[in-house]
Each structure stands twice: as C-alpha cells, then as structure tokens.
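Self-study notes.
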Amino acid sequence: MTTALPTADRPRPSTIAIALAGIRERIAASARRAGRAPDAVTLVAVSKFHPQSSVLEALQAGQTVFGENRVQEAAEKFPSLRADWPAMRLHVIGGLQTNKALEAVRIADMIESLDRPSLADALARAADRAGRLPDLLVQVNTGDESQKSGIPRAQADSFITACRQRFGHAVRGLMCIPPAEEDPMPHFRYLADLARTHGLAMLSMGMSADFEAAIAAGATHVRVGSAIFGHRPASPPNGAIPPARLAAPES
C-alpha cells in the first residue's frame, strides 16, 4: 500500500500551475453561467516573451494549447517540446508578415491572424511548399482601428467567403481584438453573428481582462497570458527587441 507523503514533503505546485487552475475555474464558471459546457471553451495560454521553462511548467500543469505572437520566438521555444508533449498545440496569434508565412505553416497547428489577401496568397504558397496547412482563423478588425491587424468590417464578408473557397475546411472560425477603451461585448456579439452567418464554429475572442464576457458571447477559445505567466518581460528571452508592430492579441 502506498503511503501518502506528509504535507510538508509534497511537491508544491508552481505559481503558473496555481494561476492555470484559477483561470480554468473561472472559465468553467463563466461557461456554466452562459448555459454552456465548460469543455466548450479552450484556453490558449499566451507565452509571448516568457521563456521555454515557463511553457514547460504550464505543460506539466496540464496545459496543452499555447499562443505566440512572433513566429521566430515560437520556433525557438516549441519544436523541441513536441517529442515529449505530443498533445501540445501551437497557435500563431500575432500579426503575421508574409515573409514569415512558410515558417508559421511549418510549426503552427493554427494561425489565428489571417487578415488580408496578400497573406492568404503567402499561406497558400507556403502550404504547397510545406505539404501541410494549419487550421486558420480570419482576424476581423471589429473596431476598424488603423493600428491593428484584421480585415476591416466592410470587407469581412467577402474576405471570409474568398478564404473559405480557397482553403476549404481549414478555415475554422474568426478572431478579434476589441478596442481597449471600449466595452468589448458589442464586438464579441458582432463576431459571433458574423461567424454564424458564415457557418463557422470557432470564435477566438477574450483576453485576460475580458474573457468571461467573451465566453458569455460564445467564445470557443480565449487567449490568456499575463494572468497565467505573470508580467510580460519587455523583450523575448533571447533579448531581441521585436519590431514596432500591431497591438498584441492578448493582455
């Protein structure tokens, strides 16, 4: 018979494990309040600028889905983990440059930031070269903000239709980042309505500060970083300073 270790001798859960448990409880409670099953919502743990050791802690705590903004950083952290963690899934969630499309297609399980025709062209070429195509989400700029990625509202319907015709079932749903200074709920509802119009099941919306509202509006994926990994460093683990780019898709 196995004897339980005395409390003082048991391994203490890491800070990341504790934070993950708290976020999972909040996701489950939000889903139940909305009349949804807790397992209908996938937590995407955004590890931007945090080291591989933090990702490993999250994996050891049972987290399997991760999001990264920068393809180069993702390529440095994730491929070496796949052999030991085959259930792990990597989402590229940041604004994607066309010259990074091939690397993104090679390493990602999902690209959440398909937002313009030139990127669609680059992803199609990359898929031909790599012999694989990750799942795709169309990013919609629901606030029509000039500093953010995302297809503008006025072009969203035609762009989604064109992407579905081109990529077929690989286009799984939509993603958005509401304006920081506005109530996010109208943006979440707009995206949910748009997804229904196009028969798309996945909705990636909601971040550390507003994921509970997003779940109430129908989010299937929520992107949470700082509430899990803590304050984000100012630069990636290798010290490289990222290019001035678009607003980060999680907080």
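Second protein, same conventions, sequence then structure:
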Amino acid sequence: MDLHRRSLVRRVASVGMAAAFPVTWAVSARAQTADSPRFAPRAGDWRTFDVTTRVDLPATTSATRVWLPLPAVQTGWQLPINDAFTSNGKARLIADGEQGVRMLAVEFADGVQQPFVEVTSRVSTQSRERAHHRQAEDPATLRHALRATRLLPLDGIVRATALKATHGARGDEAKARAIYEWVVANAWREPEVKGCGEGDIKTMLETGNLGGKCADINALFVGLCRAAGVPARDVYGIRVAPSAFGYKQLGSSSASLTGAQHCRAEVYLQAHGWTAMDPADVAKVMRQEKPEWIKDVAHPLIAPVHAGLYGAWEGNWMAYNTAHDVKLPGSRGKALGFLMYPMAEDADGWLDQYDPATFIYRISARQISA
C-alpha cells in the first residue's frame, strides 16, 4: 500500500550525525490570529528535520522485539535522507519492498537490564498543494490503492455508503469531493479514543458510531473512495513542528512529539495525480481548537481549514508509509492494521504502546535547515 517502492537515498547506520539546533518557529506575517485565521499551504519552502525516537523498556524477562517505523515515503513533497541508530540490542534496518514500509527492528535477549534503542531520521519536507497537471502513476500502484484490506472492506455497508455518498456524482473528482463532504458532515473527532484510533470502518458504519481520530476518519474517507472506484490511500506519519497558520491542533511542539502521530490521506485524480486530503483534521479543529465544539463548517475558524485540506496540507509533518495489514518480521502476533507507532513484543505478547509505565518512548524533532 505504499507510495514508493524505490530504494531511498543515503542511509547511515551510525550514531554520529551533524549537530542540529532545536526548531524555532515564528508564525509568518501572513498568518492571522485564531479568531481570524488563514490556512493556505503553498509548496516551495523545503525544511530539513532530524526526527529522533528513543525507546526504553523495563529489564527483559524473555526475548523481546521492538519495531520503530522510519520515513519511507519519497516523493515531490518529502525526501528521506538517512537514518542513524544506537542500541544495546541487535538492531537492523528492514524494508518491505511490496508495501514500501521501512523500520528499525531490534531484538533483546532475556535478562537485559536497561534495554534501549534510539534512531534519528533526517528528512526534508515541504508543504503541498493541488497539482495543476496530471502526474502519471504505475497501474499496479493504482490497483493497490483500490484493494480491500482487513480494516477496509469494500463490500456490504461500505459499498452501500459509498454509493449513497456519491449519488449523482460523475467522474473521480466529483466522487472524491462528495465523499470528503460526507465524511466531514457525518464523522466527528472523539478525544477519548486511544492513540489515533483503529481504522475499523465496517464496525464504525454498522454501529453508526463515526466518532474517532485520524486513523478512523481518514480510513473512512479512503475506504469509501476505494468502494466508489477512486484510488485512495492512508498516509501514516507524525507532526514535527507547529502550524504556521496559528492553529494549535494542526501542529506539534518539536521538543515532544510523543502522541503527535497523525494519519493523512491521498486520492488519485485523473486530472491532477495524487491529491492531498485530510478530513480528520477538519474534524479535529472543529472539536478541539476551541473549548466549545464548533459544528458549522462555515464558521470563520473552520472554513479555511475545510477548504484548504481538500487538496493541500502543511509541510510540518513527516510521512512514514501508506501500508495496511503490516506483518512485523519476527513477530508472533497478527498483522497490524498500520504501522505508525513504536511497537514491542515479548513472550507474553504485545506491550501496550499507550502505557508509559511499561513502554516508554520519546520522539522529538530538530530543524537543521530552512
């Protein structure tokens, strides 16, 4: 399910890296206050970040494995440069050629007192806007973006909902717009959901509970697009800097990215190629940007985001991969719906990546060039 099955540029499996300075982000003069906002990402300004993930585990009582996602998406808006890691376990870089996933896999023997792993990925990103000309794509990639997965079935209620949402729409752009508007109108951000959600769209539709987080809401968009015959995919990643447009919910403090994971979406339009989408962030701003839940997309705070996130997104975010049904090498567990968080497993099964008492990890970013 991944965008990019090509080998990436230079990779460094060493600890030493060029010194970097912490991100300092000044809101541009164009940015407005949150009461009178502007949201209009524009391509052109590349920035380079060092994104560091460190995992510290309790002393191992059995053989333990850890998997850390690495940026694998290489495209016109992101360039992974290299990875550097250190650990007191046996670590290796792994790439899945089929789905384009990259990860650092680490094995710890029984009896390691302070198991740890730290990896720093250097990546360049830029904001993204709608392409004016079609970008050709490999037909096999488009077929991959139309397939059903475990959490994105395309029959039954998913198919029926897609047909209802796109009733009367002609062509891929009209269908994508109709589904985007349907998701914004019917799904909502639910802050109590753990992590980024599970992305089980069949259950969401069957229960009528369309509340969730980004991996739920954007999966709903992707699944409905696929069921309507429009290639689409989730893009799993993490926010690495504040938003330049004054929206707190659309950025993250670079000093602490733990919990800043965010799933976006793309749809392939014949006239434009892969096109950025993020109805989940529209829902997030509606629910959490202000203390009150704003339910009107025409509200001055919401309207710019609602318009902007159809076709564009801000480059304060790093993509890991676009993969579903990820089987981690060496794991005894079932395939994951997606890989966006550090994962660990011992003889008793998965460690809870949301439980800081047993699975401690920290993520931070440093901007090294503008």
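Instructor comment on the second fold: Residues 172-186 form the longest helix (15 residues).
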